Amino acid sequence: MVFTELLACLIPKLALTITGSDTFKEVIEKMKQTGETFVVLLENHFPTGIFTERDLIKCLAAGIPLNEKVRNFAKKNLVKIREDRPLAVALTIMIEYGIRRLIVVDQKGKYRGIITHKDIFEILDPELFKKEITAAHFTKNKPFYYLNPNHTLQEALNLMVEKNIGAIPIVDEDGKPVGILTEKDFIFKLELSNLSEKIGNVALKEVYTASKIEPISQLKLKFKNLKVNHLVIVDEEGKAVGIISTRDLLGMAKETYASYMENKFKQAKDLLYILPEIVLEILDLGYEQVIYWGSAKAHEIFGKKIDEKSVLEIFDQEDWYRVFGKLKKLNKVHKETIKSLNGHIFEVSGSYLKLHLEGEGKIHLVLRDITYNHRYLTELKSHAEFIQNLINSIDSLILVVDPEDGTFKFYNHTVFSCLGYDKEEMDYKTIYDIVYWPYQQIKTNLQMVANEGKEIKGERLYLSKTGERIPVETYAFRLILDKSYVAISSKLKPIYQLETLNKELTLCKSQKEALSVLSKYLLNFIDTLQFLEISPETGEILSTYIEGDQDLWKGCIDNKANECKAYSNGILIEKAEILCTNVKAEKYLDFFCYPLILEGRVVGVFSLIRKLPLNNLEKENIKKMLSNFSFYFFNLYLINKLKELSHTDYLTKIYNRLFLQEVLKKEFSIWKRKGGTLSIILVDIDNFKAVNDRFGHFNGDLILKQIATILKNNIREMDILGRWGGEEFMIILPYTSKDEARRLAERLRLIIEGTPINLDDNTINITASFGIASLPEDTDSLDDLYKIADQRLYKAKNLGKNLVVFE
Fold it and tell me: 591: buried, middle or exposed (CB in 10 Å: 19+, 13-18, 0-12)?
């Protein structure tokens, strides 16, 4: 079939060309001399525009003077095709765009000639028209426009322009055709200066007609033998009922072109449920896949010149072959991930239409840009791995539960050793399988913790793999990750007689509270207690806690803990065993120092003083208390760290989006109850993608961290700062008017603009744009508050960036 032939083999004709200086009058004269119905505008051998008889008709109807330059009206959005493309591509583009001419260029884009629908029509294989439909097929549901001899040329011209048609039949009072007026007539035969002339005086001529029942094969022969572009369709009485052109007949090739029309509607139905942000249509040529159409959004993302490009100039090769393989196998894909060469990540859905031609098929793709979502999910996954490692280091049983269905998001290794389940078994368990308690009470407690943020402590029975009921002390609290979960920390009940102390420690919510409980029990045995909190990284003393008779203890070290033997050796120091030269207490006093060790590092030292010597039984009781306290202390430390991580952005160490949403809801509720003002500021780093592309993602992360630090160090103590997503930050400003928010935003903008950002090997300057919204000045709706701030942020971007927009 001719579809496999390359366009270069068809010898595209060299159409009439003009330069940018030609006027309408000069172009009309050239058209009359050559018989051409269009001209191509060339600049340095490259086609830059095309001007057709239809464009001329529109300009004449609009009254454009004949001395105007044609280049101002030549179409700039040319539809071009490379000479090395098969005819199948040309036919597809003509059908899809509804055009009559294609400009043929070489691989460098230089002008090679023109191929028209008539050229293709002449060489189409007759088999394409073997489906014997009749002329009535073309007139059905198609508007038919005609005039009578008393109408003027101006009226005919206006009708052509309004309806975008190339020919108008002229009928007599009986409805029978007596003439025809075409675009060519206006160029070659008519006096353009006298458009008030009646068409009956100039356009009555022989009209070539075809019967409604004539088959398509005869219509094709008539066009070829009569050398005309239009046939008037008549009924049994000879009355005009329609008009058909060679372009209409060319479209008939679609019927054989793999039942193109039927399948096109089917595809549209398949894709209807997808939100079409970016749409691409691709022709599979067997040896290559070529983009031949893209939506406006596609041009925005991938560039203006994507038509005729290979998909491998747009997408990552490995990703494309994976998606293309599924398209060929299943005739469709749904929500596959694909990377582009410009760094974007897309979710792609689409379908594959097999064609009965040498060019193998046609692909429709709809893409959704998920670049920032993908990075957020990757970051969240890394965050989740960190949390899993963290809870594995806690000795308590840790269960993180989805309140909706009771399944486990996380659990630690202690669960395996205490309850006897392995990982595969735990993956199929829910909290209702583990806790020996009524289903409805468990569900109610989960909802209270997840939805209301309540914290619940108590004693429960856990069911082991063998069915044994194991007593535990539990503490449940809300943990915000990608949504709200319930974290349950459980400890097996103590086996030695310190149950009262343990119960009180179980109720503690902070390390300081636990230290106070321990002091109360230890002071039954000793006179003075000192606890030094020590930084495990630097050895600096972070805080000092003293209870009891403070006159007995004079202190032993000042700022650094390195000289403390309990700290440096990580072992219990007793007066009877080792003489510590740093002790400033009286020599008659008895003492010992006990190190608190977390993950192999000393994080604190207890120094216990008593006037009378401690006996061995007392020492054993104190050691048991301290050992037991260590367990609770470290769990509180890790749980508080886990809580902090759940609402902290992993990269910038400021609040994350989920926490900001919680705070915003809370502040909105307070505003609804008490009134006053509430404002938010959205901050977006300008040109961040370009900087990221130039300096790399590592330096991009450095920029995000430094901007976060600048914002954090320059807002008020009551303001809440967080990362909203990507390079966007939000500042929540309670009790703050729009004008106050504007002044703060402007101050932050100037600070960011004037602060150099240090990268690996460079120092650059960054700017940011700001959008402000306030209650009640702008709205009384929480949803609208964010939308307004977002709209103003984008307004700042559109106005040139590095701006604060508050109206």
Answer: buried
Is there a contact between 603 and 597 (Cβ–Cβ < 8 Å)?
A: yes
SS3 label, residue 640: helix
Q: Which of 769, 783, 694 is nearest to 728 (CA)?
A: 769
pLDDT digit string (tens) for 336-365? 889 998 888 888 888 887 764 444 688 888
For the cut 50, the answer to whether the pLDDT of residue 49 exceeds it is yes
Q: With both helix axes pointing from N to C terminus, report the angle between 511-522 and 499-506 in degrees, rounded to the nearest 10.
A: 160
For residue 642 the two structure tokens come to 């886990």
For the stretch 499-505, contacts whose Cβ atoms lie closer than 8 Å and that sit 24 or more positions apart, written own/partner, are 501/625, 501/628, 502/473, 502/628, 502/632, 503/473, 505/628, 505/629, 505/632
> What is the CA angle 114-120-126, rounded to 5?
170
Instruction: Report pLDDT digits (tens) over 766-794.
Output: 999 999 999 999 999 999 999 999 999 99
**Kind of pairing between the strands at 332-339 and 408-411:** unpaired
Phi, psi of 407 (to 5 degrees): -75, 165
pLDDT at 682 over 80: yes
Would strands 768-775 and 804-805 be described as parallel, antiparallel, or unpaired?
Answer: parallel
pLDDT on residue 132: 56
pLDDT in tens, 96-146: 556 777 888 887 778 888 887 667 656 554 444 444 567 787 777 778 899
For residues 175-209, b (16+ Cβ closer than 10 Å) or e, as one string?
ebbbbbbbbbbbbeebeeeebeeebbebbeeebeb
pLDDT value, residue 683: 96
pLDDT at 791: 95
* Pair 346, 276: CB distance under 8 Å: no
H-run or E-run covering 34: helix 24-34
482 CB-near residues (< 8 Å, 6+ apart): 380, 658
The amino acid sitting at 320 is W
The answer to whether the Cα torsion of 168, 170, 173, 177 is positive or negative is: negative
**Dihedral angle, C-alpha 426, 430, 436, 439, nearest 10 °:** -170
Strand partners, 43: 46
Mapped onto helix, strand or coil, the DSSP state of residue 282 is: strand
* Mean pLDDT value across the chain: 80
CA distances from 4 to 1, 7, 104, 336 (A): 6, 9, 17, 32
pLDDT of residue 784: 93
CB 129 within 8 A of CB 217: yes
Contact 650, 382 (CB under 8 A): yes
How many whole angstroms separate alpha carbon 514 and alpha carbon 637? 11
Contact (CB, 8 A) for 425 and 411 = no
Residue type, position 429, single letter: K
Kindly provide the residue ranges of all beta strands, DSSP E only, lying in 454-556, ordered along the sequence: 456-463, 469-480, 484-492, 528-534, 541-548
Amino acid (one-letter) located at 390: L
3-state DSSP call for residue 240?
Answer: strand
- How do beta strands 456-463 and 46-52 pair? unpaired
Q: Which two tokens stand for residue 81?
A: 């095709």
Q: Which of 758, 760, 719 is nearest to 736 (CA)?
A: 719
Burial class (CB in 10 A: 0-12, 13-18, 19+), 157: buried
CA–CA dist 577, 574 (Å, integer):
5
| Separation of alpha carbons 730 and 656, rounded Å | 10
Q: Report the pLDDT value the prediction gives residue 269, as an integer from 0 to 100.
A: 34
Chain centroid offset of residue 317 CA:
21
